[in-house]
C-alpha cells in the first residue's frame, strides 16, 4: 500500500519505559529530572545542529505561578527549521494508568460492567495526562512532538491481538516534520469489548510497518539481567542473537552454567508483561533485521544507543542489551 | 457507507463554547465553576436515572495535595451501567490555544517556518490540555467521556476546508457506550500544510454525517443579539428560520427597523469566526432539519435546550436563539 512508507526512512523508534520516567511507587508522579534528561538526549541524538545553545521551546503553555506565556516565544526568527532525523517516541505508563487498569480489569474486557467502563475512562484519563506531560517535556527541548493516542487513531484489537492499526496518520505526521508520541492505551476489542494495548506491542507493529534502522528501549536498569538485578551476582546480558525462526540465545557474555535456565528479569513496574515478553517482542523486531538496544535512560549508554553509534558494533564499555538478527 | 450510522440514533451534539468554560482574558485558565455546572447539566439531561444521588466518578486520578486515588473507586457495584442517550461533546478553545495559534499564524499555514511549526506544537499542547480537563470534569460526573483529537483521528483539510474526516472511530466509541469529546485543533492541510480546524466546523461535519436530533451551542451570553449584548438596547434574537437554499431570516422578535442590516454579535473570544460565521454554520445544520439552540451555559435555559424539551416548541420564557428549518 502506497501510504505505508514515510518519505524519509525512519531512523529510530524510542521506547520510554514507564519505570524510567515516572516514580514507580508514587501514584501518577513523573520523574521530572529523568524525563528532562531523556528529552534532552533525544534532541541531541536526532537534531543535526543541536550543538546550538539556542533551543527554541515549543511548549508555550503558562508556567506554574505565572500568568503570561513564556517570553522566548518572541525569539523565533525566520531561519529554516533545524534538520532532524525522523523518529517516533512510544511511552509506557509507569505509575500512570496501571492502578486504574488493574483495579477495574480493563484488560479482561466486559464494558457492560460499570467498574470496567469507568476503569476504561479512568485509564485513558491517566495515560493521556502522562502523554501530555511527555509531549510538553519534548517540546520544551525544541522537539516538534505531537501526542497521538492509539484509541483516537482508531486502533483496536481482537482477543487482545492488534488487528486494526491504520498508521497513515503517523506517517503523515512524520512527513510533515513532527515527532509522533504514542503510548500504551485502553482500546476497543472486537471480541472482548475492550483491553489494554501495551507500548511494546505498538512498537512491534510500527517497526514491522515502518522498518526503522533501530529501536531503543530506555528503562530504569542497565538492560536484561540473568536474574533480578538487585541480586549481587546478577549478570547483565550484553548481546542476544535472534535466528530466522524467531528463537534467540545469549551470545555475550558466555554464561557459565548453561544447564540452568536463565531467569530474565528487570525491576520494571509493568503489568502488561515481564521481561520474557519484552525479549520476545524485541526478538520479533530483531528478526526483521532491526537492531534493538535496551539500556538505562539518561546515561552515556543511552546517548550511544540513540545516536546510532552501536550500528557499527557494540563496544565493550557499552552497558546494555543488544538484540540483533544473526543469519 | 455502512459505518456511517451509529447503532442508536444520536440524540445531540453539544458545543461547549470556549468563552463559557474558560476565563477569556486569563491565559489558559478554566472557569471551574461553570465547567462543573455544565458537566452536571449534561449528565442530568442524558442519563436516565440521574435523579440518583450516587454518581460514580470515572476520573480516578490523584487529586491535588493527595497521594492516593479517590476512595470512591471501591464503590462500584455490579449493577449494569445506567442507560444513557448517545451524544457527542465538542468544545472550543477559549483562553487555550488562541494565543499560540494567533502568535504563530498556524491558520495561515507554512510548516517550514520555525514559528509556525512551533506554534502548531504549542497550540496542540494547549488545546489537548483543555480537552483533558473537560474529559476529567465530565468523568467526575459519571459521564464515560473519551477525549478524541481531530489530528489523531486523521482529520485534515484542503485550503482550510475539511476534506478527510473519517468518523468511524467516533461511531465505534458511541456504540461502545462512550461519549466522544472532540475539540478545535491544529491539523494538516494538503494545500497550505497546516491550519486550525474550528469546533464549529467539526460540529457541522458530524451533524451532516450523524444526523442528531438537535444541536446545542452553550456560550457565555444568552444567544445571538442584534448588536453587541453590552449595549443597552441590544435585542436577543429568539428565532431564526432557515430556508431550503440555506438563506435565513429572523422570525422572532419582529425587528422594528428592517431597513437597517442587523449587526449580529456576541461577546465571545473567538478568533476562528465571529457571530456571522456561527449563524452560517448553524444555518447549514438547521437546513438538514436539525434544530440548533444557542443559549447561555449553566442556566435553566441550557437545561431545557439539552433535555430536548424545545423540540415540542419554544416557550416564551426560554431565553436563547433557536435556529430551525422552515419548509
TrEMBL record, chains A, B:
InterPro entries assigned: AceGlu_kinase-like_sf, Asp/Glu/Uridylate_kinase, Fosfomycin_R_FomA-type
Keywords: ATP-binding, Isoprene biosynthesis, Kinase, Nucleotide-binding, Transferase
Keyword ATP-binding part of the UniProt annotation: yes
Catalysed reactions listed for this entry: isopentenyl phosphate + ATP = isopentenyl diphosphate + ADP
Aspartate/glutamate/uridylate kinase domain location: 83-295
Keyword Disulfide bond: no
Residues under site feature: Transition state stabilizer: 24
EC number from the UniProt entry: 2.7.4.26
Binding-site residues, ATP: 94, 220, 274, 278
One of the record's GO molecular function terms: isopentenyl phosphate kinase activity
Root EC class: transferase
A Pfam family that the UniProt record links to this protein: AA_kinase
Biological process according to GO: isoprenoid biosynthetic process
Amino-acid positions noted as binding substrate in the UniProt annotation, renumbered to this chain: 93, 98, 199
Family recorded in the similarity comment: Belongs to the isopentenyl phosphate kinase family.
Entry protein name: Isopentenyl phosphate kinase
Species of origin: Solanum stoloniferum
